[in-house]
Amino acid sequence: MAKRIVIIGGGFAGINVAKYVCGNTGFQVTLVDKNNYTFFPPLLYQVATGFLEASNISYPFRKMFQGKKNLSFRMGALQKVMPEQNKVALSTGELEYDYLVFATGTESNYFGLENVHKNAIPMKTVNDAIEMRNYLLQQIEKATVTTDKNERGKLLTIVVAGGGPTGVEVSGMLAEMKTSVIRKDYPELRGAGEVSHIYLIDGGAQLLSPMSKKSQQDTYNALTKLGVEIILNTHVNDYVDDKVVLNNGAVIETQNLIWAAGVTSKVFDGIPAASYGRGKRMIVDAYNKVEGFDNIYAVGDTCIQLSDPGFPEGHPQVAQVALQQGKLLGKNLVRSSRQKALIPFRYKDKGSMAIIGRNKAVADLPSGLHFKGFIAWFIWIFIHLISLVNYRNKLTTLFNWMIAYFTKDQALRMIIRPSKRE
User: Fold this and answer.
1) Angle (nearest 5°) at CA 393 between 50 and 410
2) Residue 420: which pLDDT band, with cuts at 50, 70 and 90?
3) How many CB atoms lie within 10 A of CB 45?
4) Count of structural domains within the chain
5) Residue after which a domain boundary falls, among 272, 305, 337
6) C-alpha atoms less than 13 angstroms from C-alpha of 226 in its C-beta half-sphere
7) Distance, CA of 332 to CA of 34 (rounded, Å)
8) Are 244 and 144 found together in one domain?
9) What is the per-residue DSSP string for 356-396?
10) Which residues have a Cβ under 8 Å from the Cβ of 24 and sit 6 or more positions away?
11) Are 11 and 322 in contact (CB under 8 A)?
């Protein structure tokens, strides 16, 4: 009998587990996700700012796995795990498993700030990106008709919380839009620059904290030159009545708070508290097996692995870790079915990078090499293009980027709001 593998989550990690084992007739694989598509999170901000369509960074699971006889897809959200019965309860029914794999990623961490949770703009899903695009475009439209200078300032001022890659990239994109696109599209807003601000706030002493000092300084200089107002060593304490309240007592009046300040993993009913570590990440061994279980695994952002000598405090929550863990777990499941020795996970750091704007980026390679400007920008473009899931995504994204590069513009700024039936 084929062993039943249930994979919860179709991101980088889950997709790579599925790809590796689905060609093996010894397994029957079911991939579960609340969406019917996978997407590429590093480019969400470009959907949110109207430089890419959602379809450029997304692809349907069923299309991806056409012809894979031992792989099926189930759309649904995980509600409960029943380890003693080897069963999971989904919003769309129940599934039995021999092996269960968690690849559920992370969600926004609001650090207990309820007003921020209710009112800020998140940046974690395709839905978030589309909502952000619609919301910001509507804010600009409102600003074109208001005669109240203070109200216009609230509508046009944007606060980005979080100085990691997402916060840096969205800040840079918005700053470039402010000086080019908005001036051309909205002649009513000429002269509104004095009330329009883009703030980037981070609790650390520098932006892009995991990257090199050179990258941090280059990023700070490039964003400042673009007009982004950077506030470091400062946290957002509250967001109420169109006021972002900082822990130093300062207040920024705005109706636009973009939240990119942190992530946390998810906790699932049926997995005991003892199996979770820092950041609600499931504790796993060198083979990604969850502590306390013999047939439950976790890969990617949702797990913390302390057995890798190069990363004794756990791996960074980045795409490359998810990709590598997903591939190795798939390989180890196949090796286990053939009674072969398992391979412990060792992360191979391939470097880190962030884009700031047109011809502006930073890149750090494991060898210690640092790049900035056009070279780093080109590396970023190349790496992100080849990482997209299929040729259609690669070609349409490249086409959109070429238009944006040569025209310094893009025509994807539509406010699309599907009507809701009663």
Assistant:
1) 25
2) low
3) 26
4) 2
5) 337
6) 29
7) 26
8) yes
9) EETTEEEEE-TTS-EEEHHHHHHHHHHHHHHHSSSHHHHHH
10) 70, 334, 337
11) yes
Bridge partner residues of 257 (DSSP): 159
Tell me the C-alpha distance between 76 and 79, whole Å. 9
Comparing C-alpha atoms, which of 385, 416, 380, 415 is closest to residue 400? 385
> What pLDDT score was predicted for residue 407?
79
CA distance 253 to 239: 10
- CATH number (domain holding residue 275): 3.50.50.60
What is d(CA 70, CA 47) in angstroms, rounded to the nearest whole number? 34
Quick one: 158 and 90 in the same domain?
no
How far apart, in whole angstroms, are the C-alpha atoms of residue 299 and residue 52?
29
The helix or strand, by DSSP H or E, that contains position 149, with its residue range, turns out to be helix 149-156
Segment 62-82 mean pLDDT: 95
Q: Does the reported pTM lie above 0.85?
A: yes
- What's the one-letter identity of residue 244? V
**Quick check: is 123 in a domain?**
yes
Per-residue pLDDT tens over the stretch 187-224:
998 877 788 999 999 999 999 998 999 999 999 999 99
What are residue 71's DSSP bridge partners?
29
Answer with the one of 203, 234, 261 that is the final residue of a domain.
261
Task: For residue 394, count other CB atoms closer than 10 A to its CB.
Answer: 16
Tokens 């499931």 belong to residue: 282
Q: Which residues pair with 265 in a beta bridge?
A: 106
Residue 385 token pair? 């293009």
Q: Is residue 361 part of a domain?
A: no
The CA distances from residue 287 to 10, 30, 283, 307, in Å, are 20, 21, 11, 9
Domain of residue 141 covers 114-261
- Among the residues of 83-125, which ranges form H helices? 114-119
Token pair 């991939």 is found at 31
Cα 29–33–39 angle (5° rounding)?
110
- Residue 304: strand pairing partners: 283
Nearest to 223 by CA among 241, 249, 200, 246: 200
